[in-house]
């Protein structure tokens, strides 16, 4: 990248969201055990009976106030926390430990990502609790704060875990913004605000500046992003090579990396939650018909065929059930989706339902070029389909509905 204008879309015209879940594993534990809310919670490994060594994966913000940090030794971390027996004060906090349960956190992560894919077409998932979303095609800066606020609320209501969101004209600033007011943060940095927003920040907050680079920059007398932005670019390139130019750009609020979605979606789905759990068959049916309409409108728009049709039913508190049915060949047939979905839901008659989802998977992309279609058909990920649905290797008719209690359904490659 040169010092002057930027290639491609000027970054000032883009609106990028960075979504990062708050104390993610601990929030997942709270979702399934609400008694942990507002309590210091440490999630880690290696504290099970007989084990003395282990590390903290994450801690709730209440636990962080006691000095607990990620990657700390578990025994040290738990020593920071008040124990039930130590708590003289009946209102005093008591520390809680939960062992890491990756399968569960991945299933929650999939639910969050499903919401993201519903609100935007350009989503890049970067880790279990983090994604970039480019909404430049659908919003102006006027609408960005409301969009981000609604997205946060939706994740909270539909998935039951808190997120922080940063909005900025590029990826690196959006990431800093999501971290700026955690937890439950929402920070919007408009193109006009980008330089003043970055200027006072410690250089270590910038993308591409790790602890070693930060130390070197400090030794050069450069402590803040503002100081870095004003440093002669050649000095940085001499010292750090091409990366010196990149961090100079980031410090000046320039970053023209595109939010590139990773791979084709493995499934298309829509979900919807009820305000209160309901057993009313008409409400459940109506909601399913709406979801079917949404999903099949998307498949038709994008020329997508599917072989597997499924539902997701969440019963209180957050028990996730998935059911699916596979066809002998790919179709795009809304009437058939309706018949299968209404058949699958019968099993849940008279049970309270908190949330519903409709999904089609085993997709083929009619318009996709041959290369990506080949990739798709050879994809070994089909056998990992996380609802446990066996893929029909010979394309033969599945005569039974596959049943599974696993929770993670919406996978993207
Ligand atoms: N994680 C881990 N070990 C680490 C860091 C993180 O196992 N050293 C896991 C646990 C976290 C999850 O990854 O919950 C996401 O990492 P984040 O860095 O986003 O941390 P949190 O989401 O826990 O906290 P924050 O609110 O700061 O984002
Ligand atoms: Mg996080």
TrEMBL record:
Transmembrane segments: none annotated. Pfam families: IMS, IMS_C, IMS_HHH. Its main location: cytoplasm. The active site is at residue 130. Residues 16-210 form the UmuC domain. The record marks 25 as: Substrate discrimination. It comes from the Archaea. It catalyses: DNA(n) + a 2'-deoxyribonucleoside 5'-triphosphate = DNA(n+1) + diphosphate. Residues 267-278, 378-389 have a biased composition (Polar residues). It is found in: Cytoplasm. Residues 248-279, 371-413 are annotated as: Disordered. GO terms for molecular function: damaged DNA binding; DNA-directed DNA polymerase activity; magnesium ion binding. Mg(2+) binds at residues 20, 129. Its EC number is 2.7.7.7. The keyword RNA-binding does not apply. GO terms for biological process: DNA repair; DNA-templated DNA replication; error-prone translesion synthesis. Binds 2 magnesium ions per subunit. Residues 248-260 have a biased composition (Basic and acidic residues). GO terms for cellular component: cytoplasm. Its cofactor is Mg(2+). The keyword Magnesium applies. Monomer. Belongs to the DNA polymerase type-Y family. This is DNA polymerase IV. It comes from Halocatena salina. The gene is dinB.
């Amino acid at each position: 990248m040169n010092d002057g204008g930027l290639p491609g879309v000027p970054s000032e015209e883009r609106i990028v969201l960075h979504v990062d879940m708050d104390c993610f594993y601990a929030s997942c534990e709270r979702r399934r055990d609400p008694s942990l809310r507002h309590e210091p919670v440490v999630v880690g490994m290696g504290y099970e009976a007989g084990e003395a060594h282990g590390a903290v994966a994450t801690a709730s913000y209440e636990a962080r106030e006691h000095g607990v940090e990620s990657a700390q030794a578990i025994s040290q971390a738990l020593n920071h926390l008040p124990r039930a027996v130590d708590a003289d004060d009946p209102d005093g906090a008591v520390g809680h430990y939960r062992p890491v349960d990756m399968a569960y956190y991945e299933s929650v992560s999939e639910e969050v990502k499903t919401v993201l894919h519903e609100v935007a077409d350009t989503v890049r998932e970067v880790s279990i609790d983090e994604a970039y979303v480019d909404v430049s095609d659908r919003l102006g800066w006027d609408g960005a704060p409301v969009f981000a606020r609604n997205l946060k609320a939706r994740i909270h209501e539909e998935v039951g875990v808190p997120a922080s969101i940063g909005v900025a004209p590029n990826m690196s600033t959006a990431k800093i913004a999501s971290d700026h007011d955690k937890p439950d943060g929402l920070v919007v940095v408009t193109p006009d605000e980008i330089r003043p927003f970055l200027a006072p920040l410690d250089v270590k907050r910038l993308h591409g500046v790790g602890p070693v680079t930060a130390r070197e920059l400090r030794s050069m007398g450069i402590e803040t992003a503002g100081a870095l932005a004003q440093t002669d670019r050649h000095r940085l390139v001499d010292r750090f090579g091409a990366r010196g130019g990149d961090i100079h750009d980031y410090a000046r609020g320039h970053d023209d990396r595109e939010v590139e979605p990773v791979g084709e979606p493995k499934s298309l789905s829509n979900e919807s939650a009820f305000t209160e759990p309901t057993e009313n068959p008409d409400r459940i049916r109506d909601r399913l018909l709406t979801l079917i309409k949404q999903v099949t409108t998307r498949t038709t728009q994008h020329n997508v065929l599917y072989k597997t049709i499924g539902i997701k039913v969440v019963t209180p508190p957050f028990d996730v059930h998935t059911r699916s049915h596979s066809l002998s060949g790919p179709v795009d047939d809304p009437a058939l989706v309706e018949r299968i979905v209404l058949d699958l839901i019968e099993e849940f008659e008279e049970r309270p339902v908190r949330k519903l989802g409709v999904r089609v998977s085993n997709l083929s992309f009619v318009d996709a070029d041959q290369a990506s279609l080949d990739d798709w058909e050879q994809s070994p990920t089909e056998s990992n389909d996380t609802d446990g649905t066996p893929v029909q290797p010979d394309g033969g008719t599945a005569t039974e509905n596959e049943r599974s209690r696993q929770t993670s359904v919406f996978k993207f490659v």
